[in-house]
């Protein structure tokens, strides 16, 4: 099993030392959703993805995440997304009310056994647009191209 993680740090190590900003939280959640959806697109079993923070390797600012795919692992990916959400909620910046509300909404979604991963991915993307607007103080409609750029960088 090989995964190129040069210069990357596990999400677990990062979260032990830092609280996650909205941008970082959404980057990780978006990357996890993308990994699951893309595994399915490549006809790989997403239950073989390892979505525990110790197996997610991220760049310094969490802009880029790499995931371990372990054939034969057969871990329920939806339960893993739920547990990942729980771990992230513990380490988000709780002074950001919108982020807290969003992540608790995500949690309400992922506790359902048959939640739609594609819908979750869309919700994360929409929240990324809102965060980008807040950072740049732009109206929401002007961010479509910027968000497409960000999303393409996450693939």
Report on the architecture of this protein.
By secondary structure, the protein is α+β, with helices and mostly antiparallel strands. It has a four-stranded antiparallel β-sheet with strand order 1-3-4-2. A hairpin with a 6-residue loop joins strand 3 and strand 4. The C terminus is likely disordered.
What keywords describe this structure?
155 residues, 4-stranded antiparallel beta sheet, 6 helices, 4 strands, alpha+beta, 8% strand, globular, disordered C terminus
What's the structural blueprint in terms of helices and strands?
Layout: E1 9-10, H1 11-17, H2 22-41, E2 49-50, E3 56-58, E4 65-69, H3 77-91, H4 97-110, H5 117-136, H6 144-154
Span of the ends, CA to CA: 21 Å
Regarding quaternary structure, how should these chains be classified?
Answer: single chain
Q: Please give the order of strands in the largest beta sheet.
A: 1-3-4-2
Order of helices and strands: EHHEEEHHHH
Q: Which stretches of 5+ consecutive residues score pLDDT under 50?
A: 142-155
Proportion in β-strands: 5-15%
Number of strands: 4
Main sheet? 4 strands, antiparallel
Number of helices: 6
Rounded mean pLDDT score: 88
Q: Which bin fits the share of residues in helices?
A: 55-70%
- Rounded to an integer, what's the Rg over CA atoms? 15 Å
Q: What overall geometry do the principal axes of the alpha carbons give?
A: globular
Q: Structural class of the secondary elements?
A: alpha+beta
């Amino acid at each position: 099993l090989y995964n190129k993680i040069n210069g990357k740090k596990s999400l677990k190590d990062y979260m032990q030392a830092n609280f996650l900003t909205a941008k970082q939280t959404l980057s990780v959640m978006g990357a996890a959703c993308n990994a699951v959806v893309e595994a399915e697109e490549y006809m790989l079993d997403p239950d073989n993805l390892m979505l525990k923070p110790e197996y997610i390797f991220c760049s310094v600012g969490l802009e880029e995440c790499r995931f371990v795919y372990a054939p034969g692992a057969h871990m329920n990916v939806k339960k893993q997304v739920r547990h990942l959400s729980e771990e992230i909620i513990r380490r988000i910046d709780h002074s950001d009310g919108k982020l807290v509300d969003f992540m608790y909404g995500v949690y309400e979604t992922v506790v359902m056994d048959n939640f739609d991963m594609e819908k979750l991915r869309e919700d994360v993307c929409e929240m990324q647009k809102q965060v980008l607007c807040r950072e740049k103080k732009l109206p929401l409609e002007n961010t479509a191209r910027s968000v497409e750029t960000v999303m393409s960088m996450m693939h």
